[in-house]
Amino acid sequence: MSEKRKITIAYGDGVGPEIMQATLDILFAAEAQIETEVIEIGEKVFRKGITTGIAPESWEIIKKNKVFLKAPITTPQGGGFKSLNVATRTTLGLFANVRPCRSFFPYVPTNHPLTDLVIIRENEEDLYSGIEHQQTQEVVQSLKLISRPGSEKIIRYAFEYAKVYGRNKVTCMSKDNIMKQTDGLFHKIFDEVAREYPQIEHDHMIIDIGSAIIADRPHQLDVVVTENLYGDIISDIAAQVTGSVGLGGSANIGEEFAMFEAIHGSAPDIAGLDIANPSGLISAACMMLVHINQQKVAETIKNAWLKTIEDGIHTSDIYNKDSLRKVWTQEFAKEVILRLGQKPVRLRPVEYKEGDTMSGIKVSKYEKAVKELVGVDVFIDWDEEGRDPEVLGKALKKLSGNGLSFSILTNRGVKVYPEGHPETFCSDHWRARFVAEKEGDSVQHNQIIDLLGRFQAAGYDFIKTENLYTFDGAKGYSLAQGE
Ligand code: NAD
């Protein structure tokens, strides 16, 4: 046997210690070639006043061992505590969140017996960067950031995953009909990368209909790749349609590090009762074994687990009229151990081949486009004159000059001057667009600084600006609704 692989483990909070014990018993009984190094995270650490829930020395252990099997933790409400999951993902560059969702019908009741899909969610970007600002009395904003390399990495990962795991189709979900810049970029990169994998089918769905398909006809989907927020939502829907969120595991994968966990939380309501279902963490542990190249052990455990479920040996959360026996958490683990070496008869057994999902992850070099400044959007806080757009629009028009001319005024993205609709509701948050006086001319930064000087002199509270650029002549900004 190969040398033992050292992994970091954390027992977590609530049911964490119980399900981790059950999982480790199975891993060792199956002779997984691992050695564990335990760190403390969660409640006990929060109580010491460490707002991240993890001590600096534990980070060192995680970084040294590179692979982390984590039980759920309880995140205290409020009080400046940070999400440990978000911190782990971003600190370790775990860009891919992988969540397989498979039904185990008829042993676990579900309306969707044929579900067998994998959600691959981008983990580091999008609205989760948490860059938020209140800009006026009425309006707050959250910045959605999508990058070319970030999108390419996750999309390539999805195709590599499909290749290694023998899946046939990758579906991209986005909302590029509305967010033409951010989601437009994600979709465009998806189409580019898909061309490199002619053996794998690909398609794109708008996220709203895509979510509906997951809820109603999940068997039509195979691998789904999407941005962070959409992925967060649809991965829970997908897990739910399999019949139980208690069964799912997930992997957070980066170029150097990886973290594996159950998808459920610490379930404080049933902590200490030995009734929690350890299957989510067992499933995550199998993903970990595949990741560290111990595919055969993963296969043995997963097939024994499937046989246990098929034999009707169920924890109370999935116990039903057709179950044979209701078992405690640790008893369930013993039943899985008894079946090591067996395969399910009615459920499809798993087979994991050797393969590396990361070997195809590279970020392409791209030709830098010619970037040209062509205008500026100046956002202002204005709550005067009954918020009449005609009044504001006419006043702002007079601020044109020095090569920059006023073009439109919008409120929450909708054009309100010139030629707005009086019915449009206006908040106190306005955007005035100024563009080069002569179309095709480029704009200099000092023209924008001059313009802001004129805003200041006229007494306007400008809350931010966004420069308008073209890239090789293509507009790098959206038009206003109605523009
Ligand atoms: P939860 O997933 O802990 O529990 C939701 C419901 O599902 C509860 O009724 C619980 O008893 C049940 N349940 C969960 N896991 C189960 C299992 N293995 N077996 C049987 N039943 C199970 O979600 P919650 O109650 O919203 O969150 C509790 C705590 O967990 C919160 O502090 C939350 O922040 C945290 N949380 C942590 C993680 C994580 O560490 N990855 C993820 C989600 C939530």
Describe the structure.
The chain is of the alpha/beta class and 483 residues long. It has 3 domains: 1-93 and 242-350, Isopropylmalate Dehydrogenase (3-Layer(aba) Sandwich); 111-241, Isopropylmalate Dehydrogenase, CATH 3.40.718; 371-475, Alpha-Beta Plaits (2-Layer Sandwich). 31% of the residues lie in helices and 23% in strands. The chain contains 13 helices and 20 strands. It has helices spanning 16-29, 43-47, 56-65, 84-91, 148-164, 182-194, 207-216, 228-241, 279-291, 295-310, 329-338, 389-397, 445-457, and strands at residues 5-10, 34-39, 67-70, 96-102, 116-122, 132-134, 140-142, 169-174, 201-206, 223-226, 249-253, 258-262, 313-314, 325-326, 371-381, 404-411, 414-417, 429-436, 461-471, 474-475. The strands form 4 sheets. Strands 2-1-3-12-11-4-5-10-8-9 form a 10-stranded mixed beta sheet, with helices on both faces. Helix 10 (295-310) crosses helix 11. The longest helix is centred in the first third of the chain and has 17 residues, at 148-164. The protein is elongated, with a radius of gyration of 27 Å. 42% of the residues are buried. The model has no long low-confidence stretch (mean pLDDT 94). Nicotinamide-adenine-dinucleotide binds at residues 15, 72-75, 85, 246, 261, 264-270, 276-277, 280, 317. Residues 15, 72-75, 85, 246, 261, 264-270, 276-277, 280, 317 line the site of nicotinamide-adenine-dinucleotide.
